[in-house]
Amino acid sequence: MMNAVDAPAHQTKTRSKEKTDRPWQVIVLDDPVNLMEYVSRVLIRIFGFSKEKAEELMMAVHQRGQAVVWSGNREKAEMYVNQLHSAQLHATLEKAE
Amino acid sequence: MTVGPTVAGGLKLVPETEHDWMLLIGIAGDSDSDLAGRLAGLMDEDSMWDEIVAPELTEEFSKQRIAVVKEVLKAREEEEDIHIVKSNAEFWYGALNQARLALEDKYKFGASEEVDPEVFEDSSARAAYFRNNFYSHVQGMLLQYVMIDY
């Protein structure tokens, strides 16, 4: 399972073979409203993380402002972001660097 | 207002004054009806989030607010307490969260320990701050006592 890392800066929309092969990252952004316990539970429910993994990622979001919680193909990444938005978490997706 | 857990695994809200009822009815009023649009703003244009996802989320968030207001109005009319159980806890949590997100967007309270003292010089901001704390407290109790397996 991947570790939480700082999300990359916004990238250009250049379509190279190398770039299209790179996975999409689901990024959860920090906000001062959502309760930490709630964020952990949402990550467990959506991604099936263990409690420890979810809390680790939640703390990464809280301390670094954002964290990558999943990476893979765009379609699935969008599905996850949709679920995160439905839970009212701030989330987006970006191409991996 | 008294808020506490029940032995049946729910949460009971007991409004004691007209102000308490108005506070609960006001949850929807505090909410931001464009939350889905603001979340869509986090996505790139290629996703077409505005057209595809945001309308569904708008409806979902609206249902949460409407459900809560209906329950409060019904309880008020029947002079009953309000019971939040597993089946309606998500609506309540979501509506309270919408209200808190909107208040944060408007007043920028930040984390509770970092609130700018100037906030308290504005009476509407001060009132919003205490509502925000109340909403947050109820959310915490929902997580602790009702949404155990969420």
Mind explaining what this structure looks like?
The complex is a heterodimer of chains A (97) and B (150). By secondary structure, chain A is of the alpha+beta class. Chain A has a domain at 33-95: Ribosomal Protein L30, Chain: A (2-Layer Sandwich). Chain A is built from four helices and three strands, in the order H-E-H-H-E-H-E. With 150 residues, chain B is mainly α. Chain B has one domain (2-31, 68-146). Chain B has helices spanning 18-30, 35-40, 49-52, 54-78, 86-107, 123-146, and strands spanning 2-5, 11-14, 82-84. The radius of gyration of chain B is 16 Å and the shape is globular. Chain B starts with a strand and ends with a helix. The mean pLDDT of chain B is 93.
The radius of gyration computed from the alpha-carbon positions of chain B, rounded to a whole number of angstroms, is: 16 Å
Written as H for each helix and E for each strand, in order along the chain, the element string of chain B is: EEHHHHEHH
Helix content of chain B: 55-70%
Biggest sheet character of chain A:
3 strands, antiparallel
Structural class of chain B: mainly alpha
**CATH homologous superfamily caption of the domain at 33-95 in chain A:** Ribosomal protein L7/L12, C-terminal domain/Adaptor protein ClpS
* Average pLDDT metric of chain B: 93
Strand percentage of chain B lies at: 5-15%
Largest interface: A-B, 20 and 27 residues
Q: What is the β-strand count of chain B?
A: 3
Query: Would you give the CATH topology of the domain at 33-95 in chain A?
Result: Ribosomal Protein L30, Chain: A
